From TrEMBL:
Keywords on record: GTP-binding, Lipoprotein, Nucleotide-binding, Prenylation, Protein transport, Transport
Role, per record: Controls vesicular trafficking from endosomes to the trans-Golgi network (TGN). Acts as a negative regulator of TLR9 signaling and can suppress TLR9-triggered TNFA, IL6, and IFNB production in macrophages by promoting TLR9 lysosomal degradation. Also negatively regulates TLR4 signaling in macrophages by promoting lysosomal degradation of TLR4. Promotes megakaryocytic differentiation by increasing NF-kappa-B-dependent IL6 production and subsequently enhancing the association of STAT3 with GATA1. Not involved in the regulation of the EGF- and EGFR degradation pathway.
Name used for this protein in its record: Ras-related protein Rab-7b
Lineage of the organism: Eukaryota, Metazoa, Chordata, Craniata, Vertebrata
Subcellular location: Cytoplasmic vesicle, Phagosome membrane
Amino acid sequence: MSDKKGPITLKVILIGNSGVGKSSVMNRYVNHRFTNMYRATVGTDFLSKTINIDGDTVTLQIWDTAGTERFQSLGTPLYRGAHCCMLVFDVTSKASFSALDGWRKEFLIQGEPKDPSDFPFIVLGNKTDLSDREVSDKLARQWCEEIRGEYFEGSAKEDLDVEKPFLRAAQRGLQQYKKHTLENTGHFQITCKQPRETRNTCEC
């Protein structure tokens, strides 16, 4: 199923409230950098990174979206074609965690994935380096079980466990890519075990 002509391109969308650290997480993973200078994303931002997943060369197109209402109209064209969605919240902000359900529902409406019940969501709790935590690991995992998502947490600032959620997003996105590529091409191979001279009557 590997694409011999070049890397498989996977689209991963980062969504969540403004200020939870979506840009910081993306920049830490792709560029290995972090800055304390906060700059709200205006519209969208985009970075890419090529990695190897289970023998396939994959180029991750990571889209960081603005977490403010005035830019949510951009979601319609941006969400479509995504292979995985990463919901990001701040573990020191219960409000940012509570907002994830709304972000997820909006993504499913605007993104129109082919199979919403099977679409992969990765949930990332950022800023675990801070002491004033409001969202427990247990609470986050309970919600992830309800939505069939996978939970990770870490710190972009301290470079703690930032790579893991992106690698998992790539794995789940690759599964989506292969599943829908197979559906679109219809390459289902049937092996006939009858002798060649009798295959005209084979009903396999």
